[in-house]
Amino acid sequence: MTRTLAELTTIRVGGPPRRLVSVTTEEELVEAVQEVDRAGEPLLVVGGASNLLVSDEGFPGTVVLVRTAGIEVPSASACGGVTVTVAAGETWDDVVVRAVEQGWSGIEALSGIPGATGATPVQNVGAYGQEVAQTIARVRVWDRLEGRVRTMFPTDLEFSYRHSVLKGSMLGAGEVTPRFVVLTVTFSLRPSELSQPVRYAALATGLGVELGTRVPLRDAREAVLQQRRDRGMVLDAADHDTWSCGSFFTNPILTSGQMAAVRERAAARLGPDGPTPPEFAGGGEGKVKTSAAWLIERAGFAKGYATLDGRPAGLSTKHTLALTNRGTARAEDVLAVARDVRDGVAEAFGVRLVNEPVLVGLEL
């Protein structure tokens, strides 16, 4: 029986829930949420718990642990593609494995990401040039305000970088109690033994191909997993670098004026011939995305950084975007590192980094 949320979260931090309910069917999930709502209790819905940093005091309400299962293929054809409907509680990487084995292309670059499938549309999970928004056809949810099951399509979901209407529509104070509880996610994939075009430079280098090349699905998956292992992003109980929430900060999205100011600060800090901050598409109209990892490193925070007071938390020794539990960390230890990094980047470059994990009972 789970005693604390540290036993569930991938960063292994978090106090006890007041009550925990585990559900294995869609009916049980809806019933559990309705029961919580009738009682007027706080609700926290947990799948793989890979994107949560929970207070050491725990959660003062009911945690619903989603363990629903099922992968269905309503339709598949060479012309129409492959439709795959997945229960919210299915482990995400199991879905990717199934797709690679069956020759369904479109999510192979999302290999090795921990967590449950139901969480993927909430923050529009993405990595190595792919996002789930590119393949999601619809999401069935329980709408707690309207008290009914709804089917939401991409236009309803309003996907953007690490965001969706599911993430933005929270009830009450904080950002942990969802209006929409995901029941199933339906993906539209392509029948092919080849990946989608490789769009991430480091991945292309690892595969030994040019950007835009398509490679066998299995090769793409293994190359992604190797990239993630190199960064401590594949869960391993023996490796404290993997005791994390994944990337702790999102890549900043800036206006052209803000980006120009960052370049000026970089030149002043690193020299006129020094490295310049990278710029990527995907920030939206009139905006540009830059690298949080680049800013962190150039602000003076190296891999393995820890606070001067010796807290058992720090940056990963493999990847500066991951904040890790070195074995006995509490939530405040992790936040102390996060605040150091956030404030240091703001001082160096005038950019305030935003946390990607959901903070439960905490403020950065």
From TrEMBL:
An example Gene Ontology biological process: regulation of cell shape
Subcellular location: Cytoplasm
Principal location class: cytoplasm
Function: Cell wall formation.
Cell division found in the keyword field: yes
Catalytic reaction list: UDP-N-acetyl-alpha-D-muramate + NADP(+) = UDP-N-acetyl-3-O-(1-carboxyvinyl)-alpha-D-glucosamine + NADPH + H(+)
Name the record gives this protein: UDP-N-acetylenolpyruvoylglucosamine reductase
Family annotation (SUPFAM superfamilies): FAD-binding/transporter-associated domain-like, Uridine diphospho-N-Acetylenolpyruvylglucosamine reductase, MurB, C-terminal domain
GO-annotated molecular function: FAD binding; UDP-N-acetylmuramate dehydrogenase activity
Family: Belongs to the MurB family.
Cofactor (UniProt): FAD
PANTHER family for this protein: UDP-N-ACETYLENOLPYRUVOYLGLUCOSAMINE REDUCTASE
Enzyme class: oxidoreductase
A Pfam family hit: MurB_C
Pathway field: Cell wall biogenesis; peptidoglycan biosynthesis
Residues annotated as domain FAD-binding PCMH-type: 13-192
Gene3D superfamilies linked: 3.30.465.10, UDP-N-acetylenolpyruvoylglucosamine reductase, C-terminal domain, Uridine Diphospho-n-acetylenolpyruvylglucosamine Reductase, domain 2
Organism: Ornithinimicrobium avium
E.C. code: 1.3.1.98
Record: active site: 162, 247, 356
Keyword terms, alphabetized: Cell cycle, Cell division, Cell shape, Cell wall biogenesis/degradation, Cytoplasm, FAD, Flavoprotein, NADP, Oxidoreductase, Peptidoglycan synthesis
Cellular component GO terms, alphabetical: cytosol
This protein's encoding gene: murB
